[in-house]
Amino acid sequence: MRPWEARRDLYWRLAKERGYSSRSAFKLLEIQRKFGIMRRGDKVVDLGCHPGGWVQVAAKAVGPEGLVVGVDLKETRLEPRNSVFVRADVDDPGLVGILRSYAPFGYDVLLSDLSPNISGAWELDSFRQISLSNRALELARELLKEGGNSVFKVFQGDELGDFLGSVRRSFEEVRVVKPRASRPRSSELYVVALGRRRLGN
Question: How many whole angstroms separate alpha carbon 40 and alpha carbon 66?
Fold first, then answer.
């Protein structure tokens, strides 16, 4: 067995043992440990939430005083009591209004684990991913409170530098990380954006 396959199996087994709906939960757990992006009582929106692993992590982090709103095109059953599911396309022009109804004063955290349907054509997949990331950034600008935090999934590619520049214009601190639960051969990275700048930027 190759090392990355052994690691994949490890996180898959851990997810089953600890009751997470996906192994990707460990990616957010690591980000939370390193950066403390979520606090008790926070309101969090999770874009691309299916099958719900990140919602589970976020719901525990914010506690019963907080709220996690998961968004996905795929019907997703969310178990935490302090979570709700919205079935929608992130490009739906009515999505912002729906999400604001759950957090009229804004969200503290926006998470985006959005991913395109992988075609196997690298340039096409990279373009689709960065398009989703840019849409998530637009939503962060519209929904986050000043000082709020975000996490965006990205793929390594030619457009990544431009995306990072856009993120830095809207957040005080930006870090790029590759969690241990990500497959080493994957081009997947996560952009951790801390401290939403004054609204309007």
Answer: 6
